[in-house]
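Let us work through a complete example step by step.
Step 1: write down the sequence.
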Amino acid sequence: MIKVLIADDHPIFRRGLIQILNEVPDLFAIEEARSGEEALLKARNARYDLVLMDISMPGRGGLDALKVLKEHQPKLPVLVISMHPEEQYAVRAFRAGAAGYLNKECAWDELMSAVKKVMQGGKYISPSVAETLVTSLDGNPEKPLEELLSNREYQVFRMIADGKTVGAIALELALSVKTISTHRTRVLEKLNLANNSELMHYALTHNLTR
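Step 2: predict the structure and record it as C-alpha cells.
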C-alpha cells in the first residue's frame, strides 16, 4: 500500500481528502498531521511514500516544513494543496522542493492525476502553474520586490494585505505579536513601504490579493 501523510490544519478538508483517496480501495494507508511541526515529527518517526501538504498552517508554515522535509528526505514526493491561487505561491512551493501544486478547488480527477504523476517521480504542473513558472524564469532582471521576502514574511504580507491585524495574524499562526510585528517591519523595509496602507496598495496593484 502507498503510505500517505496529509498535513493540513483543517479537519474537514483532511476528511475530504481521505474520502477521495479511499475511493480507490486498499491502495492508500493514510495518516494525518495538523501542523508543519507535527508533519516533520511524524516524517522523522515513520517512512511515507507521499505527503499532501497545505501552506497555511499554525506555527511552522507549510513551505518551511516542506523545505526542512526535503532536506532530510529529498526523494520523498510532496504535493502541495492550497487555497491560495497558483500565481501567488506555486513558484515558492517548487523552489522549496514540491513535486506538484494544486488549488484546493481542484476536481477529483485532477488530484488523482497529480498523485499518480508525482508517485512516478514526475512533477505535476497545471497549465496555470506552468505559465506562472515561465513568467518567473523569463530572464527579466527586474524581479518583483516580493521575491525578496522569506516564506514567513510573504505569508504575513499576504495576511496584512487581506486586512488582518497583527494580533489576528499572531493568533492564527500561533506566534507572538512581537514576532509578527518584526516580520511586518521587515516586509515594509524590503518593499520600501511606509505603512499598511501602502502595503495593501502594493498587493492590489501587483495582483497579490485573493
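Step 3: interpret the result. The two ends are 38 Å apart (CA to CA).
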